[in-house]
From TrEMBL:
InterPro entries with a match to the protein in the record: Anthracycline_SecMetBiosynth (IPR052164), Glyas_Bleomycin-R_OHBP_Dase (IPR029068), Glyas_Fos-R_dOase_dom (IPR004360), VOC_core (IPR037523)
Protein known as: VOC family protein
Domain VOC residue range list: 11-126, 140-255
A Pfam cross-reference name: Glyoxalase
Length: 259
């Protein structure tokens, strides 16, 4: 089981879900991924941590009353060594800081920002909490990509912010890999008008690993979710795009057994 204890700065470290219907979506994710939840109480706005076999894998944030028009959505967080310095770097690179760096009790420091194309993401500077403890196992984070209307702007922004390099995915002229050394850390996908309606803004897409993508699709539909994109094959595994009962969109992937 690929357990994770620490990650270098500039690499993905955590997914969390902001939702207006926490009591409806928790049973959905328990059915789909086998998650159990711990409520951190009113001091943290009833933030929930989701776990698989005792290992932290994701978070759930109930929407507060001052978020009436905010859609339910998954967020991707990147590891930071200095949240204040990253906030300055985000602004210098053309992004916007939406939630200024703040300390979350003894757990760490966080900020929320958007890139120059409008995709929202977070940065996490850990103290006691380091992020997801599992990767690539059923119900845990395994990949992330930004779907953007301007891949050139996104490439410049994220390579500068995350200290990453980039290269086109072999044989694909609309997808780029962000890399830390030899490791792929995230993707950048150019949204086109043919496949992406103008109403869909630039956004980060989280991917969760599943043991059987067809079973995941069946369970998601039975548990009140929606199959946004049925299973399809990729060089890395079989992928489907799902929505939970509060319309938050995410992807699942049954990873290939061979590289």
């Amino acid at each position: 089981m690929p357990e994770v204890s620490a990650r270098p700065a500039g690499t993905p470290t955590w997914f969390d879900l902001t939702t207006g219907r926490p009591e409806e979506v928790k049973p959905f994710y328990t059915a789909l991924f086998g998650w159990d939840f711990e409520d951190y109480g009113p001091a943290l706005g009833h933030y929930h941590r989701a776990r698989v076999g005792g290992a932290d894998v994701a978070g759930l944030v109930p929407k507060s009353p001052d978020m009436p028009g905010m859609p339910s959505a998954w967020s991707v967080y990147f590891r930071s060594d200095d949240a204040q310095a990253d906030a300055t770097r985000i602004r210098n690179l053309g992004g916007q800081v939406m939630v200024e760096p703040m300390q979350v009790m003894e757990l760490g420091h966080m900020l929320v920002a958007s890139d120059p194309t409008g995709a929202v993401f977070g940065m996490w500077q850990p103290l006691e909490f380091h992020g997801s403890a599992l990767e690539g196992e059923h119900g845990s984070m395994t990949w992330q990509e930004v779907n953007t209307r301007d891949s050139g702007q996104a490439l410049t922004f994220y390579t500068g912010l995350l200290g990453a390099t980039s290269q086109p995915l072999t044989g694909v002229d609309y997808y780029y890999m962000l890399q830390h050394g030899p490791d792929d850390i995230a993707g950048i996908l150019q949204m086109d008008e043919e496949h992406w309606p103008p109403s869909i803004p630039s956004h980060w897409m989280p991917y969760f690993a599943v043991n059987d993508v067809h079973e995941a699709v069946r369970v998601a539909a039975d548990a009140g979710g929606t199959v946004s994109v049925p299973p399809f094959e990729s060089p890395y595994g079989t992928i489907a795009v799902l929505s939970d009962p509060d319309n938050a969109v995410f992807s699942v992937i049954q990873l290939s057994q061979t590289p």
